[in-house]
């Protein structure tokens, strides 16, 4: 009976190790992808007034999917509103991040401490909206 219990415990232990390794691999891939997101800063040069929406699909596993609405007035971003997100970050998070974008009129802002990957994902949806607001040259 003791041998059977030991085999069961060892089997569970092995399964936990394998599951943990698979999860770690999955998380590592997603983090590498999120870290490599680039943000294009040229989108603030020629903006057409109006309201535009943008979205980011959330990466490999769609964990950071989000969409925004931006308002352009007098060629400047005057408002950014989060429409949808999967992570359910508090409004304080997005208001702080979007406030930095509006103040600097740039996507090249400091990301929020402890949420660098999420910040970049939220900025990608703003970039998507900005690409629609471009005045054709």
TrEMBL record:
The chain crosses the membrane at residues 6-27. It comes from the Bacteria. The keyword Transmembrane applies. Residues 61-133 form the FMN-binding domain. InterPro entries: FMN-bd. Gene3D superfamilies: 3.90.1010.20. Keywords: Membrane, Transmembrane, Transmembrane helix. This is FMN-binding domain-containing protein. The lineage of its organism: Bacteria, Bacillati, Bacillota, Bacilli, Bacillales.
């Amino acid at each position: 009976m003791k041998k059977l219990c030991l085999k069961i415990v060892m089997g569970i232990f092995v399964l936990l190790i394998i599951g943990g390794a698979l999860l770690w691999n999955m998380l590592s891939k997603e983090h590498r992808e999120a870290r490599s997101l680039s943000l294009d800063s040229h989108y603030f040069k020629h903006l057409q007034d109006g309201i535009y929406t943008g979205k980011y699909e959330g990466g490999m596993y769609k964990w950071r999917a989000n969409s925004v609405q931006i308002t352009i007035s007098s060629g400047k971003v005057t408002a950014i509103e989060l429409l949808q997100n999967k992570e359910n970050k508090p409004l304080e998070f997005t208001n702080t991040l979007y406030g930095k974008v509006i103040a600097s009129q740039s996507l090249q802002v400091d990301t929020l401490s402890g949420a660098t990957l999420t910040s970049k994902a939220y900025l990608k949806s703003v970039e998507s909206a900005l690409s629609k607001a471009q005045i054709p040259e």
